[in-house]
Amino acid sequence: MNLLVTGGAGFIGSNFILHVLKKYPKYTIVNFDKLTYAGNTKNLSGTDKNLNYFFIQGDIADAKLVKKIIQKYSLTHIVNFAAETHVDRSITDPDAFIQTNVVGTHSLLKCALEARVKRFLHISTDEVYGALGKTGSFTEKIPLSPRSPYAASKAAGDHLVFSYFHTYKLPALITRSSNNYGPRQYPEKLIPLFIKNLLANKKVPLYATGGNIRDWLYVLDNCEALDLVLHTGRLGEVYNIGGECEKTNKEVAMMILAELGKSASFIQYVADRPGHDFRYSLNTKKIQSELGWKPKMPFKRGIHETVEWYKQLS
Ligand SMILES: NC(=O)c1ccc[n+]([C@@H]2O[C@H](COP(=O)([O-])OP(=O)(O)OC[C@H]3O[C@@H](n4cnc5c(N)ncnc54)[C@H](O)[C@@H]3O)[C@@H](O)[C@H]2O)c1
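^ thats the input. predicted complex w/ nicotinamide-adenine-dinucleotide below
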């Protein structure tokens, strides 16, 4: 397989590339990344020795460059991680989200179609489904109801992907995962930000009372799921990928504090995010029954591994 991974210098993309390089040493991988603030080639240090791995800096909206790269490396498969990903930033600067997550995704789809790639795996999020109350969970069949500019831009990308599947028969499929955590994440989202602050003896900002609920998925469990979907998922389908690990933000904060031996006095309650979705939860029966995947990492151990990774950086 000759694989184009977009956004491969970011959090999930870099973990995915490391997973693929280890498991499939014969694959060619081109990591195509714009290197925004969230991308970091150090996430992949050591891979430059691998003769099958290539890094190219570029924007997925740059069709000319994307076409050239696909041709040069005879790329047959695309996994599109490239995106603007932080909800808070989408509230203050939505334009960048529309540009990459909608316009960029569309440009990439056109290139994929022209190059007749064998598979286009688009990486999406549970946030496209909207918010839940205290009960229930989203199946893949729920109509999309995004509520933040980030979620809306991802939903638009998802609709474009399936429009290319239905209209032009592009062999595409989509995954929607819950909140990932683990090594190699830029420290602005809850878990890495809290770890970074606490390692520097600083307080951690918790929205409102910390009662919002998210499902947490260890990034390497996600990479195994993505590997399965890329190789064996049914075209034209969506696969939810969840960690079966729902926690309030306060519970997550308390676990990180405990891991680092700090008290609750390090929590600083701050004004809530505008339109803050209360809860996300995914029904993952489809990927479990069709592809035999299940999350493996217990949350406490995953937090320990993540803290250890950030410790060696500081
Ligand atoms: N992190 C999560 O918890 C989570 C959960 C569900 C879905 N997702 C989705 O997974 C994907 C990856 O998320 P992440 O957390 O690794 O993101 P990230 O913010 O860590 O990394 C995004 C990467 O994309 C690159 N990029 C941004 N714009 C680009 C462009 N125009 N062209 C090429 N590269 C560009 C950045 O430089 C960066 O390396 C995203 O599509 C995101 O929506 C993330």
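The longest helix spans residues 94-115.
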